[in-house]
Write a structure and sequence with these properties.
heterodimer; A: mainly alpha; flat; B: mainly alpha; 0% strand
């Protein structure tokens, strides 16, 4: 069978399945990315807080989840939540292993790992603010919350965009690992196709091309966003 | 609550995977460095014909998941009968060499940009001065550009090696039993994911720590001018061999 028939939309074509799986990859990526942003905000708040215990906890969080392979984290969440679910199920008389929902587990695992990276991005963005502006706001008599809302936040968001874009790329590539726990996203779909047609190269190369397409398009998006956020900043020529 | 015998046993089982993890890291970092150096030279050559292929290579390998790259090499290449008959097949048939190859190709794309950044960081004035002294391009590269570029890129490169160390975990998806592979097997046998995760995590964090220390030492060795002069504190004597 020719390549275009194999990946086409005809009766024997895998095009529709591959596109649906691409959608699943984007969906699980976006879910994990949003979870990571929320965790990253909490992590950054903890790292910048006055309390040593919070700073310590955030430090441990970022060190562990940036230092341990993502695959291991995915196994932890999958088997961890599965054994918890199995234990609950056995109370109701079910027997044996009950698998955790792959989408939820995958999104949570990606969220926890990318949250550790986001924490670093947000801390860096807040630290990039000039001290003088914060002192000036204080001198004007702004209370802390108003200072955060008017001075810190708008600028920190601007500084964080490139870093956040990098984390998104990371999340997207990490989402391929969720195939190991059975979620039918792009990688898993390619495995299924490769298995049933014995044309592994065609399927994995197509998957690679689709990943490249997503990273390329979203990269353009983040660059446009960065340009828009930076439109008020004068750059030295 | 804390089952120490189980933790100790898990740790010793997982430690059996450390040699494989380190081998894959070393092989891929060494192979990747050579390839990355070539790519960085192509990127800085100023010739479109050399720059464009390197740019595309970096774009493709940085834009796709490592898992896809590993699968293309390990499973995908078997689709071509010509390759199966070639002299390369004894290597490409082995999961070990496929994993090392995929990791090396992957890290080359990231490292090339690190090396390029290092090369570009050397001031144009210094290169002009070296040329004005009559140094050939090669000599100026070796004596002026390279030593400073290496120093500049060491921190980023140490991050890349730690990333590679973590990435070797993906070799477990193609049957290699390194630390993560053993951990996955233990988890599915014992159903104690948290304990196994903690043990594997300790091993990876310890390895990362060692890499970071080695690079901190290298960084110091490459930046003699930033070290403080040994000050003679009262009651201490500077050892004579400091001057050697």
């Amino acid at each position: 069978m020719q390549y275009y028939q194999l990946m086409g939309f005809g009766p024997d074509g895998w095009g529709r399945d591959m596109l649906a799986a691409t959608g699943m990859t984007v969906a699980v990526g976006v879910a994990g990315f949003i979870a990571g942003i929320l965790l990253g905000l909490c992590g950054a708040a903890a790292k910048l807080s006055r309390f040593a215990s919070l700073r310590m906890a955030a430090e441990i969080y970022t060190t562990v989840f940036r230092g341990v392979p993502d695959l291991l984290v995915i196994y932890l969440f999958y088997f961890g939540s599965s054994s918890a679910i199995s234990a609950v199920a056995s109370l109701f008389g079910a027997e044996g292993f009950v698998g955790a929902p792959a989408f939820l587990t995958g999104a949570v695992a990606i969220g926890v790992v990318s949250g550790a990276y986001q924490t670093q991005v947000f801390v860096g963005a807040v630290q990039a603010l000039s001290k003088g502006e914060i002192e000036a706001a204080r001198a004007c008599g702004m209370p802390s919350f108003l200072l955060f809302r008017r001075i810190v936040l708008p600028q920190a968001i601007r500084f964080a965009i490139p870093g956040v874009g990098n984390v998104w790329q990371l999340v997207l590539k990490e989402s391929a690992l969720i195939s190991v726990i059975g979620l039918v996203e792009l990688m898993r779909q390619a495995q299924i196709g490769a298995g049933s047609t014995r044309q592994p190269f065609s399927f994995y190369l197509t998957a690679a091309a689709l990943y490249l397409l997503i990273t390329f398009v979203s990269g353009l998006g983040f660059r446009a966003l960065e340009q828009r956020a930076m439109r008020g900043v004068r750059r030295a020529a | 609550m804390l089952d120490l015998p189980f933790l100790a046993q898990t740790l010793s089982t997982l430690a059996g995977g450390i040699p494989l993890t380190l081998q894959l890291t070393a092989l891929s970092v060494a192979g990747g460095a050579v390839l990355a150096f070539g790519l960085a030279l192509m990127r800085t050559s100023g010739s479109v014909l050399l720059d464009f292929p390197a740019r595309f290579y970096i774009f493709a390998f940085r834009g796709t998941p490592l898992l896809v790259q590993i699968y293309i090499i390990y499973y995908g290449l078997s689709q071509f009968p010509a390759l199966r008959q070639s002299f390369l097949w004894p290597f490409l048939r082995e999961a070990y060499w496929c994993a090392a190859l995929a990791l090396a190709l992957n890290t080359a794309a990231y490292s090339a940009e690190i090396i390029r950044g290092g090369l570009n960081s050397v001031g144009a004035g210094q290169i002009e001065a070296a040329r004005a002294f009559g140094m050939s391009r090669v000599l100026a590269f070796r004596r002026i550009i390279l030593p400073q570029a290496i120093r500049q890129m060491l921190p980023a490169y140490s991050n890349e090696i730690i990333l590679m160390l973590k990435s070797t975990a993906l070799a477990s998806t193609i049957t290699l039993m390194e630390v993560t592979g053993l951990a996955a097997k233990l988890i599915s046998q014992s159903y104690r994911p948290v304990e196994v995760f903690v043990c594997a995590g300790v091993i990876y964090l310890a390895l990362n720590f060692v890499v970071a220390r080695i690079f901190a030492a290298l960084q110091r060795a490459f930046s003699p001018e930033t070290r403080e002069a040994p000050a003679a504190l009262p009651g201490t004597r500077i050892k004579a061999d400091c001057h050697g």
